[in-house]
Design brief:
The protein has 2 domains: 180 residues, no CATH class; 55 residues. The chain starts with a helix and ends with a helix. It has 14 helices and no strands. The protein is mostly helical. Helix content is 75%, strand content 0%. Helix 2 packs parallel to helix 10. Keywords: Cell membrane, Membrane, Transmembrane, Transmembrane helix, Transport.
């Protein structure tokens, strides 16, 4: 393979996505195990992962259903957790919006936390890239992530109760989000949104059905948006 091909946007994406394998494998295995322990058949667990492909929302919905929460609450909670995907899509539109509809549809399906985090940073670093090059990079990031998500969800579902209860697979969830969010806190508005949402999530943790998490997320977005407005006004006042 020539050096030119290994430095193509696609292979740059593969290399940038590869480190997430360390957390995707245990994270997806954990969901497979939890799904079968919650009473889902292997086919149902796999359908959950393939159709939803959003780990945090999957865990939130499954936990609520396991706790016998109303189905409506589980659906609303999963949708609220996944509201970030709408923001991801809006953020990627200036970079990928000119692509054909079918390519945008496929990219929308594979827009997960890791692919978005890598793509938005890289696109800002390489503003001269064409739309095909951006798509190549995006799908390069996805290549080592999503197939392994499916495979190890299946492994976890098959293994099920055979996984020792003391094996700390759940470390993957917080590490994944810390690895993605940390480099993206580039402005005061980002920091404000993160601090407000984290603080309220802890303060409101006593609320039933993860309602505290929903309120914390909404408050964080509002605080970040307000901080952005105030910062823009201050810049205009200095100009």
């Amino acid at each position: 393979m020539s050096s030119q091909s290994t430095n193509s946007p696609y292979w740059q994406g593969v290399r940038d996505g590869a480190p997430f394998i360390l957390v995707i494998v245990p994270f997806s295995m954990l969901f497979g195990v939890v799904g079968t322990e919650a009473g889902l058949h292997i086919a149902e667990t796999m359908a959950f992962s393939v159709l939803v492909i959003a780990g945090a929302a999957q865990f939130a919905a499954l936990q609520l259903l396991t706790d016998n929460a109303p189905t409506l609450i589980a659906l609303v909670s999963a949708l609220a957790v996944n509201l970030r995907m709408a923001m991801y899509s809006a953020s990627l539109t200036p970079w990928l919006g000119a692509a054909p509809l079918w390519q945008r549809a496929v990219a929308a399906y594979f827009t997960v936390d890791q692919s978005y985090a890598c793509a938005v940073v890289k696109f800002e670093q390489e503003p001269h890239w064409s739309v095909p090059e951006r798509l190549a990079y995006f799908f390069g990031v996805v290549t080592p992530i999503c197939p392994l998500w499916y495979v190890f969800t299946l492994v976890g579902a098959l293994v099920g109760n055979a996984v020792p209860s003391g094996l700390p697979l759940d470390f993957a969830l917080p590490i994944t989000f810390l690895a993605m969010i940390g480099p993206m806190l580039r402005t005061p508005a980002h920091v404000v949104a993160a601090l407000v949402s984290v603080t309220l999530a802890l303060v409101l943790a006593w609320l039933p059905f993860n309602l505290g998490l929903l309120l914390a997320g909404i408050a964080g977005m509002m605080a970040g948006a307000q901080a952005e407005v105030l910062l823009e006004r201050r810049k205009e006042g200095r100009a």
